[in-house]
Automatic annotation (TrEMBL):
Keyword tRNA processing: no
Entry-linked Gene3D superfamilies: Tetratricopeptide repeat domain
Name assigned to this protein: Pentatricopeptide repeat-containing protein
Recorded family membership: Belongs to the PPR family. P subfamily.
InterPro entries per record: PPR_rpt (IPR002885), TPR-like_helical_dom_sf (IPR011990)
SUPFAM superfamilies: HCP-like (SSF81901)
Native organism: Quercus lobata
Domain of life: Eukaryota
Positions of PPR repeats: 255-289, 290-324, 325-359, 360-394, 395-429, 430-464, 465-499, 500-534, 535-569, 570-604, 605-639, 640-674, 675-709
Keywords tagged on the record: Repeat
Record has Repeat as a keyword: yes
């Protein structure tokens, strides 16, 4: 008695008791409903629930047919080396479809001969469905799974097929021929796979249920195919989850791949907590989650912004010895960038590279965009250079992010240089790239260049959008050219572009910047008459203008009006008020506002703290400044470039040069920019302390950055180099001072 017969005792299933099939069947033990039936005290075939497969009883051949079949079988066996088309030529006219099955009975143990003969028959006419199923059974028994799959797929690929009728006939023939022609259960898996691949999901599920009546279940591998195909279709995800929940009742034992498919499906539906529960369920059932399991859930939590849960899952992975893959790292980097934690994102990025996982264009672009939004354009530019060094071609999005960053910081020369580099590299700028540059020119007051670029944009065939025109109108308003801005708005309407709240807000902002508050308030009323309700940005813009004029009472009145209309203030609104208090010398009111914000759960940002620190520094109160900075750090608010510049100048003014030097090093490490005034303060401070080496180092660093030192700083180093006998450097600095200080001063006076 073989091992399967022993296992199933007297109730052995036929497919296992046959010695020739033992090896193949044992490889597919997951096919059978062992857990369900054995746990209930039943064997597979001995169970009263399991229906026996029908015996195969085809029509018997007549004596004449038997003689004809014998002749064909004999000739193809004896002359097998010759082409069948030639040796069977005399038999073609008398050959009928039912002859095929009778010949197959004679030659079924010779697989090559079966295939050759079947091919010959197919050249004459289409074989019957029964004959096709028989050859499929023989192919599976001979381990030729690929051919079996093709034969079934060919049938379902026929045009104008009645799916319902064809399904019923095929299943009946496949079950009918199973017992005597192959008895290999994997034949049903192949049929199931073809149904799934053809998108016949309902038929596949019906077949699964029908097969369970015979005591067989489809393998987990094939069931995973069904889950995958269902989850790839938005309409099929719910069905995939239903299948996953129901099939274990029939004996399917899901594996890690199965859970991964369902975890992905739940994440697609936004059910991240349920997906996480499935991960826990996996382990309770003795399955080990892999990198894909964790990566999918990490990505889901990243989309929700749940950083704490992401970090906890990464810790779990590390404990289990699982290494994060590029997909996981990409998700984490994207989440950190969205949360404004770009420095941490780069640390994860470097960790990823240290582990031998090389980033692609998407990861680099995410970081570049993140640093640009943080205002740290130099680091973004460094990453762009790194991309190019690694032969990763930056795309339009990466270039546009840095161009926008340069424009926002007023570095138009660098922005234009990058724009030209982008075009020479074969990349085509889109409306966002052009708009970023146009907006930069408008903010710099260079309206001639802005309109020239607008014309170039149109000539290239790119249609300016509402944001493009809004930037131009904003620039005109800042120059006091309100009538021209209104003409531009009319042009927008003529081109079919709809004015929106953003357009009006931009013009209100332009009028406020130009000091024309009367016109700004008038436009706000016109905006309401046109059916556009002023929003938080509109009110915040006007409040900012009044705060800068020291009219805090009017600013408060606008805030009350805004709240009465149900509009919620943003952090920018509070920053405007904070700046107003500080500019008016009302620092106590500013601190009270900060305390109130923290009590109400409104998280301040770097700008909020910067306003207070700046004005305490102006008063030379570094103790209060340091307290504010400590409060900022305690709240987890990351300092920005402005924070560092304020602190450095404050400490220099208070002669705390050790602290100023430490902050300077931190700025360099984090890739932020120091302003010219910060460098001037540091150099003066060190020079007065007779720290000439540090002063000289900072002066050279400043020159490398392309920043202009003040006249007295140049005088210091001209005298220093002259005394040291460095005449060449002395003359160079004299020329530089004349060019940068005197020429710049003359230009400023002329403008």
């Amino acid at each position: 008695m073989n091992r399967c017969s022993i296992f199933f005792s007297d109730h052995c299933f036929r497919v296992f008791s046959h010695r020739s099939h033992l090896g193949f069947a044992s490889n597919y033990l997951p096919l059978f409903c062992l857990r369900r039936f054995l746990s209930q005290g039943h064997s597979i075939s001995g169970s009263t629930d399991a229906r026996p497969f029908p015996d195969y009883s085809p029509k018997k051949p007549t004596i004449r047919d038997s003689e004809f079949i014998h002749q064909i079988s004999t000739v193809i066996k004896l002359r097998r080396s010759e082409p069948l088309r030639r040796i069977l030529k005399p038999y073609e006219s008398k050959f009928r479809p039912d002859h095929l099955i009778w010949v197959l009975m004679d030659i079924k143990n010779d697989y090559k001969l079966v295939l050759d003969f079947f091919d010959w028959v197919c050249l004459q006419r289409d074989p019957t469905l029964e004959a096709r199923c028989i050859v499929v059974q023989i192919a599976v028994a001979s381990k030729d799974l690929k051919l079996a799959h093709e034969l079934i797929r060919e049938f379902w690929a026929k045009p104008n097929l009645d799916i319902g009728l064809s399904y019923s006939h095929f299943v009946d023939r496949l079950i009918y021929t199973y017992k005597d022609w192959g008895s290999e259960p994997y034949v049903f898996d192949i049929f199931f796979q073809v149904l799934v691949e053809a998108g016949l999901f309902n038929e596949a599920r019906k077949f699964f249920d029908k097969l369970s009546n015979y005591g067989l279940i489809i393998s987990v591998k094939s069931c995973n195919l069904l889950l995958t195909c269902l989850s790839n279709n938005s309409d099929g995800i719910e069905m995939a989850i239903k299948v996953f929940n129901e099939y274990p009742e029939s004996g399917v034992c899901w594996n890690t791949a199965s859970y991964n498919i369902i975890i992905h499906s739940l994440c697609q539906l936004g059910k991240i907590k349920e997906a996480h529960n499935s991960l826990v369920q996996m382990e309770l059932r003795g399955l080990m989650p892999d990198v894909v399991s964790y990566g999918t859930i990490i990505s889901g939590y990243c989309h929700l912004g749940e950083l704490k849960k992401v970090l906890k899952l990464i810790e779990e992975m590390q404990i289990k010895g699982l290494k994060s893959n590029p997909y996981t790292y990409n998700s984490i980097i994207l989440l950190l960038c969205k949360a404004g934690k770009v420095v941490e994102a780069e640390k994860v990025f470097r960790e990823m590279m240290n582990k031998g996982i090389f980033p692609d264009n998407v990861v680099y672009t995410t970081l570049v965009d993140g640093f640009c939004k943080l205002g740290n354009v130099p680091t973004a530019y460094r990453l762009l250079d790194e991309m190019k060094a690694r032969k990763i071609v930056p795309d339009c999005i990466a270039y546009t992010a840095i161009i926008h960053g340069f424009c926002q910081t007023g570095k138009m020369m660098e922005a234009v240089k990058l724009f030209r580099e982008m075009i020479s590299g074969g990349l085509e700028p889109d409306e966002f790239t052009y708009t970023a540059l146009i907006d930069g020119y408008c903010k710099a007051g260079e309206m001639k260049e802005a309109f020239a670029l607008h014309n170039q944009m149109v000539q290239t065939g790119i249609t300016p959008n509402v944001v493009t025109y809004t930037a131009l109108a904003d620039g005109l308003c800042k120059r006091g050219e309100v009538d021209t801005a209104n003409e531009l708005l009319h042009e927008m309407r003529e081109k079919g572009l709809q004015l929106n709240v953003c357009t009006y807000n931009s013009i209100v902002n332009g009028l406020c910047k130009a000091g024309n508050l009367v016109q700004a308030v008038k436009l706000m009323k016109e905006m309401e008459m046109a059916g556009f309700h002023p929003d938080t940005i509109t009110y915040t813009t006007l409040m900012d203008a009044y705060c800068k004029m020291g009219e805090m009472a009017t600013a408060h009145e606008l805030l009350r009006e805004m709240l009465d209309k149900g509009l919620q203030p943003t952090i920018v609104t509070f920053n405007v008020l904070m700046n107003g208090f500080c500019m008016s010398g009302m620092l106590d009111d500013g601190e009270r506002l900060l305390k109130w914000m923290l009590e109400k759960g409104i998280k301040p940002n770097a700008t909020t703290y910067n306003s207070l620190m700046k004005h305490y520094c102006i008063r030379n109160n570094m103790r209060a400044t340091t307290e504010i900075y400590k409060c900022m750090s305690a709240q987890g608010v990351m300092p920005d470039s402005n924070t560092y510049n304020i602190l450095i100048k404050g400490h220099c003014k208070a002669r705390n040069m050790k602290e100023a030097w430490f902050l300077h090093r931190e700025v360099v490490e984090k890739g932020f920019d120091l302003t010219a005034s910060s460098y001037n303060s540091l150099i003066r401070g060190f020079y007065k302390r007779k720290k000439f080496m540090e002063a000289r180092e900072l002066f050279e660093e400043m020159r490398k950055q392309g920043l202009t030192a003040e006249k007295d700083i140049y005088n210091i180093f001209v005298d220093m180099n002259f005394e040291e006998g460095n005449m060449e450097i002395t003359l160079e600095l004299c020329d530089e001072a004349i060019e940068k200080c005197l020429v710049d001063k003359a230009m400023n006076e002329n403008t």
